[in-house]
Amino acid sequence: xxxxxxxxxxxxxxxNLTTFHPQPSQIMASITPTYYEMKILVTGILLxxxxxxxxxxxxxxxxxxxxxxxxxxxxxxxxxxxxxxxxPIADDSEExxxxxxxxxxxxxxxxVVVASVKPGGELVCKMSRGLKVMADVSIDEASTxxxxxxxxxxxxxxxxxxRDCTTLxxxxxxxxxxxxxYAAMCAAPAVVLASKGLVGDGATCxxxxxxxxxxxxxxxxxVVVQGNVVTSQGPGTALKFAIKMGELLYGAEKAKxxxxxxxxx
Length: 265
Known about the structure:
Elements: H1 10-20, H2 24-31, H3 35-67, E1 84-89, H4 95-108, E2 111-116, E3 124-126, E4 132-134, E5 137-138, H5 139-142, E6 149-152, H6 158-163, H7 166-177, E7 181-185, H8 188-193, H9 209-212, E8 223-226, E9 229-232, H10 238-250, H11 252-261
Parallel strand pairs: 1-2, 1-6, 2-5, 6-7, 7-9
Antiparallel strand pairs: 3-4, 8-9
Helix pairs in contact: 4-10, 10-11
């Protein structure tokens, strides 16, 4: 006996499907958030983002600050407590003397500023042996500031360029009138200081006849201190010169410490 297969109505199936499965419009309505739900969701996302960014920024600042030098820590010399030193230079200034003055006094803790006396505010100077040095400021900028020490390197004709700079001479004259330190070495004591009446008897300079003749009773010592004026002879005495200036600014104990560290006997 054959049995007929049951007949399933397509319409009935469709009816059953609609019975158990909602229409698309019903689905969207059930999953679409209300205005207040959306507001809460967005607020939560923004707060989370701010927290993550703030944490990352704080971590970055903490990491970078640990790498930076602690310029204003109690263990270091702060800017307002440091001595300020001006080192004027020109084309054909002596490079050993210039760098020795700058380097040594920085080791003491001084704020050393190199100023160019070249016309027009040009900062790059070609030194006596061809080395090019870029100054920090022009002499005009330096003239508006106060200095604990002004130290001149030698070199020819660099010393003549320093002598011919009226702004620098005015600074030196003010330094003398205020009883503050100023110094020169090599050709500069004779060419600059002696020619402008800024040094007395018994100072020293580079031991060349043409220079010693400009000095009054020149001394033979490597470094000579006369009140607030310091003079020295040349490149080979530059370290002694710089350490003596550091001693006058910071004291004998500090000078001995720096000299020992630099292996200067």
